[in-house]
Design goal:
It contains ten helices and 15 strands. It is an alpha/beta fold. Helix 6 crosses helix 7.
Length: about 260
């Protein structure tokens, strides 16, 4: 724990680590207070693509946490940044929530349902058969398929729900095309996070509740790794993976010294 507490930078997942739905998890306020008190650099790095940093800031404020919006980085922002560097001024057919539309618009990516360069899929409550048909047609016509993240499922107040990889699977299966996923564990997102913090990977820790995104991303990027059991992964499930986190905690509330 002393090694973890001595780190200069902390990259934290949000769902299952900071909150479940609209409920703040135990010990989170104490953990955030500790980050500020110890002058740590920290970033909430989430594979969820539906909300903007400002919306995430407002969500935490409603729960009693005051965190500047500069501390948030989403898979929607990572996707927009990837598209902007790959093909500036390109267009996309988008299946997703406002956070994804907003990030792509800010990056100069125009929406296009006729002949887009990309079909981009993130989480959304408005997912429907008509949009799948449209996406399949466009990918068959040459649009490149992009997913904001590889999460198959995500936690919610009502239990485990399908996430981006589950939503994009019908399009992959119907077209025979594999999507490129930008969010964790893609090193692109992790390297951007470290650059935003201004710390080297050896001076940072990755805290998450998922072995297949958070922990593998930390391992492959050279960060210290902490699995919290407050989200979707149990200790039993953790043991099924060929890699391990360095620390396993009940939640982030265990970290403040």
């Amino acid at each position: 724990m002393d090694t973890l507490r001595s780190k200069k930078g902390f990259i934290c997942d949000m769902d299952g680590v900071i909150y479940h739905g609209e409920r703040l998890l135990p010990g989170v306020k104490e953990f955030v207070d500790w980050l500020y008190r110890e002058d740590k650099k920290f970033l909430f790095l989430t594979n969820a693509s539906g909300k903007t940093p400002k919306e995430l800031q407002s969500k935490l404020a409603r729960m009693g946490l005051d965190v500047d919006e500069s501390h948030f980085y989403t898979s929607a922002l990572a996707t927009a940044n990837f598209i902007r560097t790959q093909a500036p001024g390109s267009s996309a057919y988008i299946i997703g929530a406002p956070g994804l539309f907003n990030a792509l618009y800010e990056a100069g990516i125009m929406t296009n349902g006729i002949d887009p360069d990309y079909v981009i899929v993130g989480e959304t409550n408005n997912y429907n058969y008509e949009s799948i048909l449209k996406a399949v047609q466009l990918v068959r016509n040459g649009a490149k398929l992009i997913g904001t993240n590889t999460d198959l499922t995500g936690p919610s107040e009502s239990g485990i729900i399908p996430a981006c990889r589950a939503l994009i699977a019908p399009i992959e299966l119907a077209t025979g095309k594999s999507a490129y996923f930008v969010g964790k564990p893609n090193p692109l997102m992790m390297r951007t996070g470290l650059r935003m913090l201004g710390v080297h990977s050896t001076e940072a820790a990755m805290i998450g509740d998922r072995m297949d995104t958070d922990i593998v991303a930390g391992v492959e990027s050279g960060l210290d790794t902490v699995l919290v059991l407050s989200g979707v992964t149990s200790e039993e499930e953790m043991n099924r993976f060929p890699y391990r986190p360095r620390l396993v905690l009940n939640g982030v509330g265990d970290i403040p010294g």
